[in-house]
Structure formats: structure tokens, C-alpha cells
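Structural prep section.
Before we set up the soaks we want a predicted structure of the protein with zinc ion in place, mainly to decide which crystallisation condition to try first. Input record follows.
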Amino acid sequence: MPYVNTKTILDKANKEFYAIPALNINNLEFLQAIIEAGIEERSPIIVETSEGAIKYAGNGDIQRGARFFVEMVRGYADSLDIPVALHLDHGKTFSVIMATITAGYGSVMIDASEFPFEKNLSETRKIVEIAHSVGISVEAELGKLVGIEDNVNVKEEDAVLVDPEEAERFVKESGVDFLAPAIGTSHGAFKFKGKAELDFDRLRAVKDSTGIPLVLHGASSVPNDIVELAEKFGADFKGAKGVPEDILKQTVDFGINKVNTDTDLRMAFIAGLRETLAEKPSEFDPRKYFKKPKEYVKDLIKQRMRTLGCSGKA
Ligand code: G3H
Ligand code: 13P
Ligand code: ZN
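Run finished without errors. Recording the C-alpha cells verbatim:
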């Protein structure tokens, strides 16, 4: 059961009340760390790539980038006995979505959340029709992820968070497989100025009204020990703050099944890389100076898998 459709993994998680981290990659080293974490934890794996990652890997050619990721992920997955899925994160461009569908991704996200509800619905429906006709599942987003400034103002926040009634209609009329409801998170390392808080009531209402697997974007926790280590070796991450681990766990209790994580992997990697370069100034073999960064990424993922409850679920 190696390379699978993301829906297989998420439907099981939805039924059994746990979540899987969906982990962004741009290159080989992060994939290796993810695979090793999955094997050691016996967890299903969801790997995802942004449009930017696909352009980067293809050196500007999106078809080549999408094929590259499918071949690389499949190349590892085929020899494993844990399920591995590959997902397009934040698909906004029709040509990139089509490139990933034809290359063999297991699911795509159509992110038309910047548009008004009706346009988001019609754009999503269009992609669902195409993707479902070839057996690929689809994620969409409702509401908009808040920026750091917006997040401290509760009144303004309401304008961009998901509306549970709209969510019910959106899921019914679009046929989407997974939904990302905006409940107060944001992308990157600077998510909250004050106390970290998410709208659990809204999340619960969306789960009650849709019943499908839900996705938390902007879910990195930005662990203090990683921030401190990176800063010890010269990084400047002043004010970095993520979603605390206990809040992540609560989102799973309220219906989240896919936890999108990119920033944490980047932070763990750079902390390990800075440490290695500082401690071994004569090292110039990438297989050696990537060793510690990969270990830190792997350890972070293993811990996250335990928090989300997917360890032992493969
Ligand atoms: O949600 C965004 C992901 O962190 C991907 O970011 O566009 O820098 O690859 P990226
Ligand atoms: P973070 O920036 O919190 O890792 O969020 C990643 C994400 O949502 C990818 O879609
Ligand atoms: Zn996201």
C-alpha cells in the first residue's frame, strides 16, 4: 500500500479521530527526513508541494517540476509498507493544477479563497469535476487566513473567518473532499502578537455541518527550543510565535484531520545547519552538513505525529 490517494489516508483519520501532518518539501533532504519519521512512527505520510516548490524543482518548468516530485516521492514510497500521498498545496493557477493532476499527484488544493463565496464555489466545482474524473481528490479553503496584524483585532478577524453555514453549502455544492476552514491561524513564523487563540466553536460547527476531513493551514508551532538554538548560532527570529502544541491537539479533538506544516520544518533545518556550520567550519560535504538538519526535521515530525495521534496508524 505505498503511493496512495490522499483521500484513503484522510477518510481513515476522520473515522478514527486523529490527524496527519501534511509536510511541505522543496527538495530531497526534507523528503528523506519525512520518510524516516513516518517509518519510525509507523504513521501514514502526506507530502505536499506549493506552486513555488514545483517551479523551483522544475527550474521554471511546472510540468517538469510536478513530474520530478511524483517520481521522487513514488521512488521512496514504492519500497515502503506505510501509505504515502502527494498533494498540491495552495493551487491557484489552472496550469499548475493540471500539471499535478496529469503528473500523478494524489490530491490537489484549489485555493480560490481570495474570491467572493460564489466565485470560490464555481472555481472549486470546476476543479472537482476534472480531478474526480481521474480519481484524484480535492481540498478547498473557506474564509481567509489572517495576517499577524489582523489577528489581534477580534472584530476584523470575524470578517475573514469561515462561516459554518456557508461551509455546509460549499461542501454540498462543490463536491470537495477536504475543507480548510479559516479559524484564526496564519502562515509563517509570526502568527500571534498576543495570546495564541483559535475559534474552536467555529471549527466544531463546520465539522458538524460538513462531516468531511478538515485541514488546518498555518499550523506550525514554532518550538522555542528550535528558535533558541537557531538564534544561538546567529539567526534573528525575534517575535516568532506559532500554534502551541496543546492547541494543535485540541483542533484534532474538534475535527481537524490534516495539519499543514512547513515553517517548523524550515526552522528545524536552519537551526541544525547553523549549528553544524558553526561547529565544523572546515566541512564542505553536503551529505555531512545536512546530517544534523535532517535529524532535527525528523525529530520534530516524529513529535508532531505523536501529538496528532497518527503514530502507529499506518
Ligand atoms: O502555505 C504556504 C507554504 O508554506 C508554502 O510556501 O510558497 O514559500 O513554498 P512557499
Ligand atoms: P506554516 O507556515 O504554519 O507551516 O503553514 C504551512 C501551510 O499552511 C502550508 O499550506
Ligand atoms: Zn497553507
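Observations: The longest helix spans residues 291-308.
Flagged for discussion at group meeting.
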